[in-house]
Design a protein that fits this description.
about 325 residues, 2 domains, 17 strands, seven-stranded parallel β-sheet, binds flavin-adenine dinucleotide, Rossmann fold, alpha/beta
Length: about 325
Amino acid sequence: MGKKILIIAEKRQGQLKNVTLEALTAARKIASSDITVGIIGEANQGMIETLRKYGTQNVCRFAGQDLNTSNPDVAFHILLKLIETADPDIVLFGHSLMGKETVPRLASRLKMGLVSDVTKVDVNDDGIFLTRPIYSGKAYETVKPLSKKLVVTLRPNNIRAIPASRPAKAEITDLSIEAPDMRIHILRSNERNKDTVDLTEAKIIVAGGRGVQRAEGFKLLKALADRLGGAVGASRAACDAGYCDYALQIGQTGKVVTPDIYIACGISGAIQHLAGMSHSKRIIAINKDPDAPIFDVADYGFVGDLYDIIPKLVDKLSKPTTV
Ligand SMILES: Cc1cc2nc3c(=O)[nH]c(=O)nc-3n(C[C@H](O)[C@H](O)[C@H](O)COP(=O)(O)OP(=O)(O)OC[C@H]3O[C@@H](n4cnc5c(N)ncnc54)[C@H](O)[C@@H]3O)c2cc1C
């Protein structure tokens, strides 16, 4: 198909986010060569090796500069320069906070088409087809973009990241940019939940609802999540009740997640909560009400008190399995 593709890399705690590798897998489907990855800030040798492994030909790096991309003005200016320099046919972003915040502005400024929150990329002789959920996940649509230049955001955890059959060159070009005149100045930022797994990228999520009944109950959920290498999430009712931080909220007005396993504990399954998690690959519900709507979407269910069930699961997972 011969399209020129630029992927905007995202990092967390010195590692590339998985959505960047998922984007590289999608990019190889669209164009077997001419894939550039743009990285803002530090890009260590480990990251470059991973990019090579996933088929990156070029890396554009804004290295050694103290540019705070949590400021949307800064992110916009750097990304604008990056896209103008690389001049791609398609730009791929993660459907992350940065993607959601900057992409509409970039697409509008650069007069590029935009398809957001894509969960599947198909390519055939008739072109590129992008599938995405609509109406809060109640239906899917598949679109064929008609614009010559296109920006796409990919929902994390939907395209399986697969290394290329052979590593690419990943040749590095260092770019520089003056800090723009900003309308927003960030004075201070505190990273919360720094040591926890990123909810949108987590493969396993243990989520608690109003049924958890108290903030301490979330420690039990965390113990289960830790045993499974997963993250803790919550319903809005649990956040509103002050049992946990709003950063954990999943749903229509919270985060949208697609983990391999979603364990809903004391969550009724309101439509606004389902909007954020119903596309999880496997849903396990723990609820004492056998008629709770969450069981309609669950693959497996425990009917009972979460304070009886979860400690048993934690205990079981703490012991080595015997064959
Ligand atoms: C515009 C709008 C946007 C919204 N956005 C969101 C959103 O993004 N995310 C979201 O989650 N909600 C959202 N909501 C709120 C949503 O409608 C529900 O009120 C909320 O999801 C309910 O949360 P819950 O399931 O934790 O609580 P509840 O509906 O009260 O359910 C609690 C469940 O816990 C069970 N339970 C109680 N005790 C135990 C126990 N000991 N063991 C096991 N089970 C137990 C009960 O049987 C019950 O099913 C939104 C609402 C509106 C109007």
